[in-house]
Amino acid sequence: MLKLGKLPTTLLGLFFLYLLSYMAARVTIFHAVENYTGIEGKSKPRQDYITKRDHPTGEGWEYRIFFPAIQAEERIINFFHNLQI
């Protein structure tokens, strides 16, 4: 029989290990690219996306492993950049 006592702790530990790995990869492997369309203030909001240095978006095994974290970061960044006050 499987004991569920250690399962939440193990999953939480794996989640934090994944986030720590993403933070290390974000500093060393990935960088943000800003994309503006048209004249500022008179066009669509800006879009930031994260890509591997010197490669197109979506290329490389690192990008595929950290894709959920990259999507979450892009959504957070775009939300705050496009916030209308």
Defining traits:
85 residues, alpha+beta, two-stranded antiparallel sheet, 3 helices, 14% strand, extended
Our measurement of the CA-to-CA distance between the termini, rounded to an integer number of angstroms, reads 55 Å
Shape: extended
- Specify the biggest β-sheet: 2 strands, antiparallel
Quick check: average pLDDT?
Answer: 77
Order of helices and strands: HEEHH
Q: List segments where confidence is low: pLDDT < 50 over at least 5 consecutive residues.
A: none
Class inferred from helices and paired strands? alpha+beta
Query: What does the radius of gyration come to?
Result: 17 Å
Strand content: 5-15%
Q: Quick one: how many beta strands?
A: 2
- The strand line-up of the biggest sheet is 1-2
Please tell me about this protein's structure.
This protein is of the alpha+beta class and 85 residues long. The protein is 49% helix and 14% strand. It contains 3 helices and 2 strands. Strands 1-2 form a two-stranded antiparallel sheet. The termini are far apart. The mean pLDDT is 77.
